[in-house]
Write a structure and sequence with these properties.
single chain; about 350 residues; alpha/beta; 12 helices; 10 strands
Length: about 350
């Protein structure tokens, strides 16, 4: 009878042991959560090694890297495959059809993301070796959905021009001389500060927020709209040490004279709608609306200045973008939504 009682108690003991194991394992995983690093790549052979090495050199090791090759015509695929063979944490997505923008590639990578956080890294940028450690430490202290590290704008040909964004800038391009990284922001405050880029958008973001919102694929700079959406959905936003090195490379795709340079207006349009739909103050809505008008005028001026150097095919594409820009400018005005907010 005693033997039978012992046998009856064994399953309960086993269940408690198994339950305790998985609870402790879950706590450990959350306390040291995995970071999914997403790197869209296109003709990145000149700098992708440095980018990948900066992640490999992290003192915090619980990460995975997903490199998306957007039909590169150089040795990019060969290089990222080489690193993937060396380190099992690195995954490669080799696309067959080119997207041309980062956002669709990041959205594709989100299907394979398994980390608690997502960290977007430009294919020509790097991070300091303590970046992940410092950001995770700050998350452990605050529980914030988004952690913003320092950011250095790097000018390789003229290092004297380098400057650092830490915490909240006094105003655009005027860093705070005594940065306060202890500040905690709510989503609405972060959106407002981001409108004049007093905070940057190279952030560690809880993956559930990014998977819910996705990256905006409208226009070349749709990720700028997405950054504001992520802020709005975050419980709080905190700052940390660790540095994102944002390289200002003249040969970057964003610097080339192509229709892509004119495909940047939809972000401001969507942002104005976001502010209106979420009842932001009128002065902020007006600020973005005026910025849209200014952007339209600058795009027209840029086209007039360079149209002789643009092919007939690209001129037609740019003219379409300018007409669409003008149409979207009139859309909100015709609905009377801006006037409603001013009353």
């Amino acid at each position: 009878m005693n033997s039978l009682k012992k046998n009856l108690f064994i399953p309960n003991m086993v269940n408690k042991t198994i339950k305790s194991f998985f609870i402790n394992k879950k706590k450990t995983c959350l306390f040291n959560p995995k970071i999914s690093v997403v790197i869209p790549c296109y003709n990145s052979s000149k700098f992708i090694r440095n980018t990948i090495e900066s992640v490999l050199n992290q003192t915090y090791t619980n990460w995975e890297m997903i490199c998306i090759n957007d039909v590169s015509t150089d040795n990019t695929l060969k290089i990222i495959n080489f690193y993937a063979k060396k380190d099992k944490r690195i995954k490669v997505i080799n696309k067959k059809k080119r997207a041309g923008y980062a956002a669709p590639n990041i959205n594709l990578a989100l299907r394979y993301v398994s980390g608690y956080f997502v960290f977007g890294l430009g294919h020509d940028d790097t991070i300091s070796s303590d970046s992940f450690k410092k950001m995770i430490q700050r998350w452990q202290e605050t529980g914030a959905d988004i952690i913003i590290p320092d950011c250095m704008l790097v000018y390789p040909d003229d290092p004297a021009k380098n400057w650092v964004i830490a915490g909240i800038m006094d105003s655009w391009a005027k860093p705070n001389k005594n940065p306060d990284r202890d500040i905690i922001l709510n989503g609405r405050d972060a959106v407002e500060l981001s409108l004049t880029w007093r905070i940057h958008a190279f952030n560690l973001v809880r993956s559930s927020i990014i998977k819910k919102c996705k990256y905006c694929e409208d226009g070349m700079n749709g990720d700028e709209y997405s950054a504001r959406m992520f802020y709005l959905y975050a419980n709080k936003i905190a700052f940390s040490q660790g540095t994102y090195f944002y390289y200002q490379i003249p040969s970057s795709i964003t610097k080339k004279l192509s229709p892509r340079l004119w495909d940047v207006y939809k972000t401001q349009y969507l942002l104005e709608k976001l502010l209106i739909d979420n009842d932001f103050p009128y002065h902020l809505i007006s600020f973005i609306h005026n910025a849209r008008l200014s952007l339209y005028n600058s795009l027209v001026e840029k086209y007039e200045k360079h149209k002789k150097d643009i092919s007939d095919e690209n001129r037609q594409k740019i003219k379409f973008l300018l007409r669409d820009n003008e149409k979207l400018l009139k859309e909100i005005e015709s609905q009377g939504r801006l006037a409603t907010r001013s009353s």
